[in-house]
């Protein structure tokens, strides 16, 4: 965990007001259903003039029900990561396939990391009053889909990256054919795991399990990661890709997976959330996924390969459309600030204690340094 994140994790939310550039707060009631729009990014020059840099700004929580200063986010995240790691390890035991395929799957799925997406699923379940155990199959499935997408993303026919999380990418370690099949196998295992896990649970009714599977399928397929990846590749080197095209890519490639599969909809569904609650959390996850990508784009320019655990500067070298390229570095940081405030606004109608993990998770994603 980076130093800045550790600072507000250990000491709680700082007391100063969170000052961001051109924040747009939602004016509807806290749990009103209906689609909302992500803050529109204005011209890069205007942002650059007054941008607040996310790497140095103080974070604050508003008074009252949103006061989460006593919440120990590091402890929460560590406990969820341990539970998910154990469950993932069990899921990969006894697979009836060649050892090389199992090892390739384990290599990527158990490579470590903070398990932010599974924690997001569990936190969303808890937010609507569900028990953490109800979300564990979904949390594992989210990580399986994510690992599969990273394996495929790194391959020579995609982003052609030899490094992932500080280690050789899966196709470098096991060869392209095995890596391709490991990604496919993890994707299939995700659906098997969430269906079997929910059906074996006494707290997740069959209709909720089915809805969770539908959410996962949408996140992984033609309305999600697959569509975003194709648009991403087709946009390489294209000077005509603007903000609309860039947001299409990342809404599908990044935000859709976080929104539907990782925490928002699927976690809230298995937790028994009402329709308006599911929609509220879904939109939180959508905005959070956009925030994740904006910060990734900034770090690709400002961090080293050692800090990132993958090759830095590849997006710029490949001529990809990124937020810093379209908005400037300060403009991208300012937009990330707007997205953070928007994500937190979606939690305002929920119980403050239950919402604490999601508030801290949003800030952690915004202020991370790798």
TrEMBL record:
InterPro entries: Isoprenoid_synthase_dom_sf (IPR008949), Polyprenyl_synt (IPR000092), Polyprenyl_synt_CS (IPR033749), Prenyl_diphosphate_synthase (IPR053378). The keyword DNA-binding does not apply. Pathway: Isoprenoid biosynthesis. It holds the Pfam family polyprenyl_synt. Its cofactor is Mg(2+). One of its GO terms (cellular component) is cytoplasm. GO terms for molecular function: metal ion binding; prenyltransferase activity. Coiled coil: none annotated. It comes from the Eukaryota. Keywords: Isoprene biosynthesis, Magnesium, Metal-binding, Transferase. GO terms for biological process: isoprenoid biosynthetic process. The keyword Transferase applies. SUPFAM superfamilies: Terpenoid synthases. Gene3D superfamilies: Farnesyl Diphosphate Synthase. PANTHER family: FARNESYL DIPHOSPHATE SYNTHASE (PTHR43281). Belongs to the FPP/GGPP synthase family. This is Geranylgeranyl diphosphate synthase. It comes from Digitaria exilis.
């Amino acid at each position: 965990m980076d130093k800045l994140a550790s600072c507000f994790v250990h000491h709680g939310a700082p007391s100063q007001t969170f000052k961001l550039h051109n924040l747009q707060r939602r004016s509807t009631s806290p749990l009103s259903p209906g689609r909302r729009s992500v803050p529109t990014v204005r011209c890069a020059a205007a942002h650059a003039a007054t941008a607040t840099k996310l790497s140095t700004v103080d974070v604050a929580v508003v008074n009252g029900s949103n006061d989460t200063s006593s919440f120990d986010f590091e402890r929460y995240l560590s406990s969820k990561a341990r539970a998910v790691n154990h469950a993932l390890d069990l899921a990969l035991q006894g697979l009836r396939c060649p050892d090389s395929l199992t090892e390739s799957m384990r290599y990527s799925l158990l490579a470590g990391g903070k398990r932010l997406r599974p924690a997001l699923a569990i936190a969303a379940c808890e937010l609507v009053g569900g028990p953490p155990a109800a979300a564990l199959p979904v949390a594992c499935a989210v990580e399986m889909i994510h690992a599969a997408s990273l394996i495929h993303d790194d391959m020579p026919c995609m982003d052609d990256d030899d490094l992932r999380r500080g280690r050789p990418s899966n196709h470098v370690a096991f060869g392209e054919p095995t890596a391709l099949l490991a990604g496919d196998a993890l994707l299939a295992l995700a659906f098997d795991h969430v269906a079997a896990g929910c059906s074996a649970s006494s707290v997740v009714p069959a209709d909720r399990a089915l809805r969770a599977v539908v959410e996962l399928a949408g996140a992984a397929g033609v309305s999600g990661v697959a569509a975003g990846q194709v648009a991403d590749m087709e946009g390489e080197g294209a000077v005509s890709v603007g903000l609309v095209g860039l947001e299409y890519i990342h809404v599908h490639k990044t935000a859709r997976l976080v929104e539907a599969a990782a925490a928002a909809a699927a976690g809230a569904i298995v937790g028994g959330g009402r329709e308006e609650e599911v929609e509220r959390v879904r939109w939180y996850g959508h905005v959070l996924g956009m925030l994740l990508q904006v910060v990734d784009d900034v770090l690709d320019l400002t961090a080293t390969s050692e800090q990132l655990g993958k090759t830095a500067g590849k997006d710029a070298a490949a001529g990809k459309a990124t937020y810093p390229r379209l908005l400037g570095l300060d403009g991208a940081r300012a937009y990330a600030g707007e997205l953070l405030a928007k994500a937190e606004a979606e939690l305002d109608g929920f119980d403050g204690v239950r919402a604490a993990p999601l508030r801290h998770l949003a800030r952690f994603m915004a202020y991370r340094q790798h």
